[in-house]
Design goal:
globular, 0% strand, mainly alpha
């Protein structure tokens, strides 16, 4: 007698939205396109091209002998490649909900609010854009590109690469527990983020704000994902630079 029981097909359990590379890439795509437009139209003259973190990514690509065109567009190309490779290796489905990238963008905008509130409380918002050492933008569009370039390149270096590297070192080499490794990685990369912003040129209150911002963005990355941290960073810089 044939069995009447049937195997039930369960949908795959997906990781949290912020930890999924495809929605992350789609959420960041408008920002990548604006940055690329400025780099294509202005080339080496674009202020966004002189964001220090963007330059460091370009120098890394130059080390591997890539052509100047790849170096100029290094942040967008490298970030897109990393997310696509991550998506391929994760074996997650190549589909997503229509509003999932929108959710990440909204979370990022909301995530900028504590940074703005903290800077306003300290009275340092206009003097503390989180763009790193960079020459002043000359036009509004250039300003927008600087904010986007800083958010993308700095979060890629300090959060995605930095936290991953420190966490892997602590857990794999020194056998530190996952939770402790995560906390140490967030604090270590926040310290590096602060040094990157040249604290010797800033008053103590501003240094404290940048350090706190590094911890906050690191926590945002760990808890809500890369796209949310990037968009919060961009959102803060846009308000600080436009102000």
């Amino acid at each position: 007698m044939p069995s009447t029981s049937h195997a039930t097909d369960h949908p795959p359990v997906l990781p949290p939205l912020g930890d999924r590379p495809l929605p992350t890439l789609v959420a960041l795509l408008p920002f990548l396109l604006v940055l690329e437009y400025m780099l294509i139209t202005s080339g080496d003259a674009s202020t966004a091209n002189r964001v220090l973190a963007h330059e460091r990514i370009g120098e890394t690509l130059h080390f591997f002998g890539l052509s100047p065109i790849f170096i100029l567009h290094g942040t967008a190309l490298l970030l897109t490649a990393v997310l696509l490779i991550w998506q391929s290796l994760s074996q997650l489905p190549w589909r997503m909900g229509v509003f999932e990238p929108v959710q990440l963008v909204v979370e990022g905008i909301i995530g900028a609010a504590p940074l703005l509130a903290g800077a306003a409380f300290l009275g340092s918002m206009q003097s503390t854009p989180l763009t790193g050492p960079v020459v002043s933008p000359t036009t509004t569009l250039d300003l927008v590109a600087v904010a986007i370039g800083a958010g993308l390149s700095e979060e890629f270096l300090f959060r995605m690469v930095g936290i991953l590297a420190v966490h892997a070192l602590l857990t794999d080499v020194f056998k530190v527990r996952h939770s402790a490794s995560t906390i140490i990685a967030v604090l270590a990369t926040a310290a590096a983020f602060t040094l990157y912003h040249d604290p010797s040129s800033m008053p103590d209150t501003t240094v404290a704000f940048v350090a706190a911002a590094g911890v906050y963005l690191g926590a945002l990355y760990v808890l809500r994902g890369f796209a949310v941290a990037v968009i919060a960073h961009i959102g803060y810089d846009l308000v600080a630079l436009l102000g």
